[in-house]
Amino acid sequence: MSAHAAPKLGSYNIAANQHSISGLSSGAFMTVQLHLAYSASFIGAGVVAGGPYRCAESSRQLALTAEDSYMVNALYICMTPLTPRTGPNPVRLAQIARQTEAAGQIDPLSNLARQRLYIFTGTEDSVVSSTVVETTSRFYQELGVPSDQILFINNVPAGHSLITDNIEDSYLAANQPPYLNYGGYYQSHDILRHIYGRLAPPVERLSGRIMPFEQAPFLDPGEAEYACLSRYGYVYVPDAVARGEKARGVHIAIHGCKQGAGFVSLTYGLPDMANQPPYGNRYVTTTGYNEIADSNNFIVLYPQCQGDDDSTAQNPDGCWDWWGYTSKSASNPDYYTRDAVQIKAIHRMLETLCRGAES
């Protein structure tokens, strides 16, 4: 092997179908999409400041073209509706999900009845309205998730952020990059405890390693130019799992806008270091997922999205696609299906991780 060979994602002995997913902001919207697309693979999800499935298609009449309509929906219905009544309709979106299931584009929705959901909105969030996040809870209930399996939290004075126990992070009510706010606890731990039940306390010192891997192999030919995936994703593997012990499952942690490890703001397609510094790998290293994964033999997968601001993909802030910018046809989008370029790639990463299972 060449000394310059790109790292590849490894395979491990992992318990089958005990996986979970969580995300913040665009990562939360992506969490819901991936969760529905491949619900057979998961047992639960954590949605922090995110709206319901196919929210960007709430009202096709908002603009002349489909592409413009989805963008207007994303901004003014799915993020900051003027009133709760102008926000997303969970009953209608649940019906759209059923139509998507009937078309064979997502896994059976009956899988959701066994799932556990952590759904959170901060009372000071000025980026994604709390009324929108509340509809996410109602949406899942419309699709058969019992209310006692959903932990919906809407009474914490947090801004738009994932909450951490890092004193150097932003103050709790902040609505600013890197969208990691100090609250005296790790929200990631609460997410995993709700999904999996009682867990061992997090470790103080990690036993394993955070490893980069090439994301391009998880794309089909020609997809890289519009997929907006960074060159590298990251994975945390506890030492015991690396030595052959069976992992309890994989947790997929999906960052939000401006949080990818390779994110740099773009202005007119060029890197803009003066107005927006890169935030590096803080979502991968400082959000607490690795510490609780280490003590409970979970693998944590951190797929990475990058910003792009050209004629191929309008995504300058490095957001995951929840309004259709990766769809080849605006009138017939596929960003929410099993065949969506980003969803398909992330699930292929999960499949690769699990190929080392004992026969």
Topology:
Elements (H helix, E strand, L loop, with lengths): L18 E6 L1 H12 L4 E7 L17 H11 L13 H13 L13 E7 L7 H13 L7 E7 L5 E3 L15 E3 L4 H10 L12 E6 L9 H4 L4 E6 L1 H4 L6 E6 L11 E2 L2 E2 L10 H4 L3 H7 L2 E5 L5 E2 L4 E2 L25 H13 L6
Parallel strand pairs: 1-2, 1-9, 2-3, 3-4, 5-6, 9-12
Antiparallel strand pairs: 7-8, 8-12, 10-11, 13-14
What distinguishing features does this structure have?
359 residues; alpha/beta; two-stranded parallel ribbon
Overall average residue pLDDT: 90
Q: Structural class from helices and strands?
A: alpha/beta
Terminal Cα separation, in Å? Answer: 28 Å
Total strands: 14
Describe the structure.
By secondary structure, the protein is an alpha/beta fold. The protein has one domain (19-356). Helix content is 25%, strand content 18%. It is built from 10 helices and 14 strands. It has helices at residues 26-37, 66-76, 90-102, 130-142, 187-196, 224-227, 239-242, 282-285, 289-295, 341-353; strands at residues 19-24, 42-48, 116-122, 150-156, 162-164, 180-182, 209-214, 232-237, 249-254, 266-267, 270-271, 298-302, 308-309, 314-315. It has an 8-stranded mixed β-sheet, with helices on both faces. Strands 5-6 form a two-stranded parallel sheet. α4 links the parallel β3 and β4 (150-156). The protein is globular and about 50 Å long. The mean pLDDT is 90.
Concise structural overview:
It contains ten helices and 14 strands. By secondary structure, the chain is of the alpha/beta class. The radius of gyration is 19 Å and the shape is globular.
